[in-house]
## 1
Amino acid sequence: MAFVAVRVLSLFLLSTAAVATVTGVARNPACESPAIGAPVFPLDRDLLQFALNLEHTECDFFLFGALGRGLDSVAPELAMGGPPPIGARKANLDATTRLIVEEFGYQEVGHLRAIKSTVGGFPRPQLDLSAHNFANIMDNALGCHLNPPFDPYADTLNYLLASYVIPYMGLVAYVGANPNTNGFVAKRLLAGLLAVEAGQDAIIRAILYQRKHELVAPYNITVAEFTDRISELRNRLAMCGVRDEGLLVPRELGAEARLSTNILSANEDSLGYQRTPAEVLRVVYGTGSEHVPGGFLPKGGGGKIARAFLASP
């Protein structure tokens, strides 16, 4: 028993020393979880860099929505010379929502810094955050041409519905990446990113949930119907069954098949859904194909995974 105890202690001290070596920051072993193995595996790097496509999209959408300026103003070094986003602008938000969105934007700056400082990165890809792009998404979701076209920046409710479109894709991408991430530094980074992405999505859904029966002017369509149709669109584009749910669902899809209200999107065991990089690209491109760019990434995503899909038919 004494030998086992000494062995466990030795592994713990070695693992915490490894963390300190990787991060370059002195650590207190009493405050660190044991970590054994390589800090970052090659696939870890590719998966985390893939996430930069989503983090960049969220970052500029939230910063512009709250401040009227984006990453080039707040942390230009993280854009790495990538082109400015198309069509992003300040939204007409109420005071409370503006503060929430501003915080989200700064959180995304931190995410970009954390990923790029840990596994490297690439210049911000070309983003399309224009009202026209969001209008196309809503038209596709609802199966009709909204008149006037949907404008995400017009008011608080429209912006929240547009926000419903984006962070959830980061959430399911991180859940999907988790089983394939092996390095202890990579896994810790992924867990931290997932926690905040899930929190952002939950806050957006909670606010919309409170307004679920409200009609979105001037369309005579409820908030809940917007969310349901957006989720259905993402499921259709991803082509892998139901991995996305709106605020109201058939009872059999509710928590323990007991509710039709659905404040969080989760599977039959109330676990978060997961998506592969290919599924994510089909949705974010809006084309239903990981090989055909469009939507939020009109020139395609960056990083090894996204570029490989673009290079193959």
## 2
Amino acid sequence: MEDNILCQWSVIRSMLAILQWWGFNVTVIIVNKWIFQKIDFKYPLSVSCIHFICSAIGAYLVIKVLKLKPLIPVDPEDRWRRIFPMSFVFCINIVLGNVSLRYIPVSFMQTIKSFTPATTVILQWLVWRKYFEWQIWASLVPIVGGILLTSITELSFNMFGFCAALFGCLATSTKTILAESLLHGYKFDSINTVYYMAPFATMILAVPALLLEGSGVMEWIQTCPSLFSSLIIIFGSGVLAFCLNFSIFYVIHSTTAVTFNVAGNLKVAVAVTCSWLIFRNPISAMNAIGCGITLCGCTFYGYIRHMLAQQPPGTPQTPRAPRGKMELLPLVNEKLDDKV
């Protein structure tokens, strides 16, 4: 009886964690798009900088003030030699995501983000010459095919936004690869990752945001008809972005890898549906089919990675690097790539 109760509570806790993650993720995406489209605050660098400031403050409060998570110590030298390069790529990743939201619909942007598994595998193969079984390469076919179909049939296609989203996938993949090489020996959770990287990212982005968008932001402040409510929405998006990182940590420890992967793809479908209901961006039938094919491919890719990971090291179907090249520990779990 007790076992049944514990099992049911575990399932309920996992579902609540997933719903919480979905809520924060979809809300951040929708709010960011609302900022660019409805409030007419067309300054993605400034929005990203506000996100980093809020995330840095939030991580400090969680670790130093509330002590909800222990701080993982890092040598001062490693902060500049290892974490700073990671922060630079992390910064580019977030900025490109917001730039793509500025120019293309949420549905199209989220579909392109699903291309990340393909870019990660390709970069690992090119940079490390890492070997992958044929099942991994086969799982990338529907992902690439779905992206191509969605791009060709996108009614609100914008080349600049498309390139920003695509390079955002490359930045995410590069972040993963750099994490494995630069931060060997440090295994961070999402909150410690934000704690160390957000201040560096703020420092990196503050000057370009001020130089490139400062005058435009000041003009917007002077002409905005409802300044106070608009600023609440803009800074609220930063708070939500931090909450998203915290919810990712919680959901990872409440679900399995397969559940997380499937939930992540369903989250994309939820984001696409919600954005269509709010912004009414046109979606053709072929565009929806392409998005569905991509999500199925991502689910299949996650399943294959999980099945191969369950096999003992050294088996023929385990992804491996060339002999003599050490496998490096990742900075964070691969499931943490979904931060906005």
